[in-house]
């Protein structure tokens, strides 16, 4: 695959990431508004947060949870089950927290679906490239400027530092989504307790809820970008290996947000058997937009072992010296 085709593939993949991030932004903003409105209604009703929850409301919540379990994918069903399996709804406070959790679980399922779609799309793009002799339609995305102007000054400790400090590896993408949302629900449980106990008004807690969801959205964005970049790297490694390519080179997308380490990695060459995600293969850190291109060995060597012993004798006859 020619360099320009790999970079075109990268622009397709990373351009799609930006569109998926917009979708995530809308999802998280909607979830924040839903939680704020939910808690505002509880506060407005002036119900005792420790009083017994209305039976009809409890039944509706149970129906909502059952519907979530039915709609969830096979990968997400254990997360839904673990979230609600041992919960007991007795008080208004319990009801408010679990209704909040339902909103977050719905958000997690939508986030996971978006991530799976993006990874599937990356796979499909790789298949399209393979079926079309390494070509893709030209991307209209101009956000990433890939360059060869920088010299290969990166050293191994840079990527080692990236892997150690960012720690994005480990566990499946689904597991990371579920773990992050479980932590968010625990945080919101504490916040709901405080809101209901103190009878806070929406203007007192709205910003806190939005900040919680905004931080979660940023983590979701990192997961999406990192997983998609990782999938693209794996596809490229598979393609290079199948065609007998021995080496690859790091290409860094130089944008306003590109880190210094990734700029320095631009031009670093590795053998295919050295390929290891996060260490010698992109992504090196969350939100990484580096990619790889194949390198052909164009060095020429003279095999002096096969040279005749009298080579050059006609030109340098020393017999009469």
Task: Characterize the structure shown.
- The structure is a single chain.
- The chain is mostly helical.
- The protein has a domain of 214 residues.
- It is 60% helix and 5% strand.
- It has 8 helices and 5 strands, in the order ααααβαααββαββ.
- Strands 4-2-5 form a 3-stranded antiparallel beta sheet. It has a two-stranded antiparallel ribbon with strand order 1-3.
- Helix 1 packs antiparallel against helix 7, helix 2 runs antiparallel to helix 3 and helix 4 runs antiparallel to helix 6.
- The radius of gyration is 28 Å and the shape is elongated.
- The protein starts with a helix and ends in a 26-residue tail after the last strand.
- About 11% of the residues have low confidence.
- This is Phage head morphogenesis domain-containing protein.
